[in-house]
Amino acid sequence: MDENEGISQRVEMEWETPSHDEIIEISKSHVVGLEMTDDDAVWRVAGMHHILLHTIGRRSGNEHKVALPFWRDAEGHRIVVGSFAGAHNDPAWVLNLRDRDANPRVKVRIQGGMYWSEHEVLDEGADRDAQWSAMLLDRAWYANYQSKTDRTIPLVRLAETEAISD
To answer: What is the pTM of this model?
Structure first.
């Protein structure tokens, strides 16, 4: 665990859910900020710590970056939620992560560092259900997002499998 150990992950939603187009634009702007600084004001937004996830496009082969809030499971692994605010389809970054040929592992930038993750997409099963229930205790609005779609919103565990030195 890092310096955030012991800090509550509970966040009350004090904002309106942006539209899907707004989410994309907010993330693009956030990516720029995350690449420029390690300042807390950029890495902790709306009470949540964020990561910068690098994926390889499953069709294009190009690198893509997305800023995402994370939640830590009981083992301290970062977990991101593929909700896209309850959209009917998974966000592109989740689709890219599902393609193990394009993304056998992913690069994750965190505040003050970077690592490789042999990510795990949790779509179903006891582990996904347990993580979802625990996460909802801290981030209750995701239940509302789940109610907006027929798909099961995936969770992605981003365990640190190899440090990347600058």
So the answer is: 0.86
